[in-house]
Amino acid sequence: MKTLQQIRRDLHQIPEIGFHEFKTQAYLLNEIYSMDQERLKVVKWKTGIVVHVKGLAPKKTIGWRSDIDGLPINEQTGFSFESIHPGFMHACGHDIHMTVALGLLRLVNQTPINDHMVFLFQPAEEGPGGALPMREWLKNQHPELLPDVILAFHIAPEYPVGTIATRPGLLFANTSELFIDLVGLEGHAAYPHRTKDMTIAAASLLMQLQTIVSRAINPLESAVVTVGKMTSGTVQNIISGHARLEGTIRTMDAATMQTVKKRIEALCKSTEIAFECQVKIDYGSSYYQVYNSEEITQNFLSFADRDETTNAIVCDAAMTGEDFGYFLQEIPGFLFWAGVDSSYGLHNAKLNPHEKVIDYLVPFVESYIRSL
Ligand SMILES: CC(=O)N[C@@H](CCC[C@H](N)C(=O)O)C(=O)O
């Protein structure tokens, strides 16, 4: 049997983006099928997997969700087990999430709990979003696999191993992706007056987008408009006829999201007039906020407080997005942060989560689940 550390390292080497997690799914299935199958029911959904573990005297079904996708980042950790997929990396810790889920699955399969458990290995958390379609598929095709309560964690680089952090109520923001295409007229660098330069138009629009949060949002509310990628042009002596901005919007409530979008649309319209071009907006996928059930989360924090190996913190809400919010929209439960003591943050090419979080978290979560 492979150690959990080996599993984490194997998974770390094969990051795949949303709905392309073919090797990941095959690896997970191999591990799951190597376990005693007597209590297990395994169902595939796209590149994801659902595993039902039969309880001894079930009163409810407890769900544990792990996301499984990686990010399009060129890894720079220097690990001996670096990604073998150039340009892709587990830079958000989903390799750790999957390993903890497998470790937990092993334990509750070896020594069953009273309740049923369902493990959801969910694709595409980073985008375009797997939780909502997976939830709908479960409801429509496998209602018997729907959990009554659902739990998940996310690694937290800023905390030491042994620290967990969460809060009852709102934990993560509402999100919407943002893709803006600007189409003008390309031409010779020496004849700018015969072109419609989309590098200039995109640069101007990018700067104007920065005024939304500072001037259109009530300072007592919160919003983020981040453009993470900007592309334009082909070569130094051609004026670009096409530019693209790619970003994300984050807000603490749905009404503010609408205000931000209205401002983006207005600024795009004015860019069309000012730069004589066409501007097209695509909002991509959007995630519902992560709203932790008050009572269950409070009980979990009290449980963690009593645990000698754990330092439990009530943290602030964050502008992070998580499509796990779609599960919590309909099923009670919560998400918590677990410290991994990394000098580099999430979505960083040098993210280095400490592996000892796996050996800490698996028995901690197991004992919490047995207490439910
Ligand atoms: C935990 C985490 O980092 N989640 C991602 C979710 C991305 C949602 C979507 N693709 C977007 O960019 O809006 C995050 O960036 O917060």
Count of individual beta strands: 17
What would the CATH topology of the largest domain be? Aminopeptidase
Shape: elongated
Q: Please give the CATH architecture of the largest domain.
A: 3-Layer(aba) Sandwich
Unreliable stretches: none
Q: How would you characterize this protein structure?
A:
With 372 residues, the chain is α+β, with helices and mostly antiparallel strands. It has two domains: 4-172 and 289-371, 3-Layer(aba) Sandwich (Aminopeptidase); 174-286, Alpha-Beta Plaits (2-Layer Sandwich). It is built from nine helices and 17 strands. The chain has an eight-stranded mixed β-sheet, sandwiched between helices. Strands 8, 10, 12, 13 and 14 form a five-stranded antiparallel β-sheet that branches. It has a two-stranded antiparallel ribbon with strand order 7-15. α1 (4-12) runs antiparallel to α3 (94-110), α3 crosses α9 (356-371) and α5 packs antiparallel against α6. It is elongated and about 75 Å long. The model has no long low-confidence stretch (mean pLDDT 97). Residues 92, 126-127, 154, 175, 177, 248, 287, 320-322, 346 line the site of ligand L5K734KM.
Task: Provide a quick synopsis of the model.
With 372 residues, the chain is an alpha+beta fold. The protein has 2 domains: 252 residues, 3-Layer(aba) Sandwich (Aminopeptidase), CATH 3.40.630; 113 residues, Alpha-Beta Plaits (2-Layer Sandwich), CATH 3.30.70.360.
